[in-house]
Amino acid sequence: DAGVIQSPRHEVTEMGQEVTLRCKPISGHDYLFWYRQTMMRGLELLIYFNNNVPIDDSGMPEDRFSAKMPNASFSTLKIQPSEPRDSAVYFCASSQQGRGSDTQYFGPGTRLTVL
Amino acid sequence: DAKTTQPPSMDCAEGRAANLPCNHSTISGNEYVYWYRQIHSQGPQYIIHGLKNNETNEMASLIITEDRKSSTLILPHATLRDTAVYYCIVRVGGNNDMRFGAGTRLTVKP
Q1: Which residue in A10, A83, A108, B45 has a CA-CA distance of 20 to 30 Å to B65?
Q2: What's the CA gap between A90 and A84, in Å, rounded?
Q3: Which residues pair with A109 in a beta bridge?
Q4: Closest to A82 (Cα-Cα) out of A64, A66, A68
Q5: What DSSP character marks residue A80?
Q6: How many of the other CB atoms lie within 10 Å of CB of B92?
Q7: Considering CB atoms only, which of B43, B94, B100 is closest to A102?
Q8: Given this model, what pLDDT does residue B3 score?
């Protein structure tokens, strides 16, 4: 398996612009997670989905952030409008539960820089 | 989830065993101990997890004390590529709110 795929790997944008991050989970996994990592706050869970349905979005910082999962093989995290404090590395992870293991597998991340 | 305490950094000589401690004194009976690591500029990587018994896989061994208040991750023969931040996490199995702390930065030296 190719693992969790994220795109783009790097994104540089200007304040106020819309940013869309993409994730393809491991095939067959029914959970998908979005995390954000900064030096100040470490690794934080933003939102997660089960079978394409958002389950917990309590970690989403504010209304500027939204996430969707239109099908089992694709998810997006959108920031509109972006701000410099959104600069971070965003990770997507997936897992398959119900088979004795709920290990989360992480993608390589998207490094976002908002100028 | 219970909080964990890890030393901020450790060094290890290449080829020697790396023993990374973790304290989780408030762990509940149904909480597992998970270990992940993050190599620079990469996503976190699962290493191993356990509930009560010691566990071993191709990457590492996990030793959990009898009272479950602490554990040790052992990398039997550390290599330079094992240099990373190692996270100890306690969570209920199936609980998707996995909280990463600051971890231990392990540096393997030649």
Answers
A1: B45
A2: 14
A3: none
A4: A64
A5: S
A6: 14
A7: B94
A8: 85
Strands A10-13 and A110-114: parallel
Chain A residues touching B44 at Cβ < 8 A = 43, 91, 93, 106
Q: What residues of A are in contact with residue B45 (Cβ under 8 Å)? A: 106
Q: Beta partners for A22? A: A7, A76
Specify the pLDDT at position A14: 96
Select the residue from A43, A57, A60 to test the B interface by mutation, using most B Cβ atoms within 10 A. Answer: A43
Q: Does the pLDDT value for residue B69 go beyond 70?
A: yes
Least CB–CB distance from A106: residue in B44, B49, B94: B44
For residues B103-110, give the mean pLDDT.
96
3-state secondary structure at position A106: strand
B6: number of Cβ within 10 Å: 21
pLDDT digits (tens, 9 = 90+) for A49-80: 999 999 999 999 889 999 999 999 999 999 99
Task: Give CA–CA dist A31/A106, Å, rounded.
Answer: 12
Residues, chain A: 115
List of chain A residues whose C-beta atoms are within 8 Å of the C-beta of residue B46:
103-105
What is the C-alpha to C-alpha distance for residues B22 and B90, in angstroms, rounded to an integer? 10
- At residue A4, what is the residue type? V
Mean pLDDT across chain B = 92
> How confident is the prediction for chain A on average, in pLDDT?
92
Cβ atoms of residues B6 and B20 within 8 Å: yes
